[in-house]
Amino acid sequence: MTGVVEMRGLIRVGLGGVVVVGAVMTASPAYATPGHGVTVKVIGQWTVKDTDYVLREITIRPGGATGWHRHPGLVFANVRAGTLTHRMSDCVTVHRYRAGEDLMEAPEEPRAHLGENRGSEPLILDVVYVSPKGVPLSTDAPDPGCAR
């Protein structure tokens, strides 16, 4: 429970920092491929010492997916709307996160993962990335051949 509370605090601090900084929202395509139906808004981005912090709003339309990928840093996310189906490349592990739930992805996780919206409404995620300075937020991974 403590980790969830701390993660919510980090997301709130990130959102609050964006308001203070007055960051401008911009739309861009998702970086992981071969994703489809994903749009990303960068809400805020800043660097402290050797660490990049990026706050994004990610929307996945019904039937959309991120594409298989990994992250070199920590990822904290809150499902604002919809349900995230989060599949791991071991083709066994599947997690479902509903509106109001939080998740964390650790950089030491060796398995790639895929985020999907199997619902009928848009999936909206508020995501904070904490990564080494100058490193991409995600790297593409090959499709492991998991059947849906």
Summarize the structure.
It comes from Actinoplanes campanulatus. Keywords: Dioxygenase, Oxidoreductase. This protein is mainly beta.
What layout of secondary structure does this protein have?
Blueprint: H1 2-21, E1 26-29, E2 36-48, E3 51-65, E4 69-70, E5 74-81, E6 83-88, E7 94-98, E8 102-105, E9 113-116, E10 123-132, E11 139-140
Antiparallel strand pairs: 1-2, 2-3, 3-10, 4-11, 5-8, 5-10, 6-7, 6-9
Protein name: Quercetin dioxygenase-like cupin family protein
Keywords: Dioxygenase, Oxidoreductase
InterPro entries: RmlC-like_jellyroll, RmlC_Cupin_sf
Q: How helical, in percent, are the residues?
A: 10-25%
* Estimated structural class: mainly beta
* Percentage of residues in DSSP E strands: over 45%
Lateral arrangement of strands in the main beta sheet: 1-2-3-10-5-8
- How many beta strands in the DSSP annotation? 11
What is the name of the CATH architecture?
Sandwich
Radius of gyration: 15 Å
Number of domain units = 1
Largest sheet: 6 strands, antiparallel
Shape label: globular
CATH topology: Jelly Rolls
* Overall mean confidence score, pLDDT: 84
The N- to C-terminal Cα distance equals 31 Å
CATH superfamily: Jelly Rolls
Organism: Actinoplanes campanulatus
Protein name: Quercetin dioxygenase-like cupin family protein
Keywords: Dioxygenase, Oxidoreductase
InterPro entries: RmlC-like_jellyroll (IPR014710), RmlC_Cupin_sf (IPR011051)
